[in-house]
From TrEMBL:
Protein's gene: rsfS
Signal peptide segment: none
Main location, first listed in the record: cytoplasm
Pfam families xrefs: RsfS
Keyword presence, Oxidoreductase: no
Molecular function, one GO term: ribosomal large subunit binding
Protein name according to UniProt: Ribosomal silencing factor RsfS
Subunit architecture: Interacts with ribosomal protein uL14 (rplN).
Location of this chain's protein in the cell: Cytoplasm
Top-rank taxon: Bacteria
UniProt keyword list: Cytoplasm, Repressor, Translation regulation
GO CC, one annotated term: cytoplasm
Similarity comment: Belongs to the Iojap/RsfS family.
Residue numbers spanned by region Disordered: 116-139
Lineage: Bacteria, Pseudomonadati, Pseudomonadota, Gammaproteobacteria, Pseudomonadales
Amino acid sequence: MSKQKINGEELVNLAKSALEDVKAQDIQVIDVREKHSLTDYMIIATGTSNRQINAMAEKVREIVKLQGVQPLGEEGKGDSDWVLLDLNDVIVHMMTAAARQFYDLERLWLGAEQSRSADGKHHSPENAHSYSENLKDRG
């Protein structure tokens, strides 16, 4: 009996539901299809302890396996404050609050698009050296 392959969005919903079942906090889903070729989505969730993070990873692994999805890899098992579960189309990051704040993956992945200027004026020739010109004027 072969199971039909589930798509990335269905996998996100499964993983998110599994994380919610074990009381993961601040679950964030980031669509990285336009930014990254290795995966489609990243899920970032906070656990209150290393023990909870391991329970979160175990629950996600268990739920996706029931749907015929075999994780490609896992990093950080044991007493780590960051466990990564690679589900191919979805990468799940489960972290302590301290690790999440330190690595700030949301800023890394969301900040890239938020920091781009809509009109590109900051890259225009007339604005290229305005910062250094302002410094000269002060000195």
